[in-house]
Specification:
alpha+beta, 16% strand, Sufe protein. Chain: A, binds FE2/S2 (inorganic) cluster
Length: 155
Amino acid sequence: MKYSDKVMDHFLHPRNVGEIEDATASGTVGNPTCGDIMRIDLKIVDGIIEDAKFMTFGCGSAVATSSMATEMIKGKSVDEALELTNKAVAEALDGLPAVKMHCSVLAEQAVKKALLQYYQDNDLLTDEIREKFGDLDEDAHDESEDEDLPGLKNQ
Ligand code: FES
């Protein structure tokens, strides 16, 4: 399988790895098929994402897309970050092999899940914004998977 130089760069030298201790919001998602898990922490001040970090227990494409996704949303407003798509992340990495596109979906969902928490906590979830979260809104109050994730800290 051929990966772009950018994918390899973000896989071998991922940006923004780790946790934010005083994170404003966090999103953890998993892909039931491959079992990969991704968590993104956001530090949001006055609606601006001041910091974003990730931990990914998964494949190289999942690591590269989380790295790129965190880079793309840092400094953006929450509304701008909400427009992030997995396609945009993949394009910023100069593409992903077709069978690896689902890995970039994980990055989009992890960002969205963290943003959903922020919108909910701050009573900003209008119907229009709720639509942008799609299915993620349904289990938004289920914090169980955000607790201890075995293996996540082994990165
Ligand atoms: S193979 Fe599952 S996220 Fe990449």
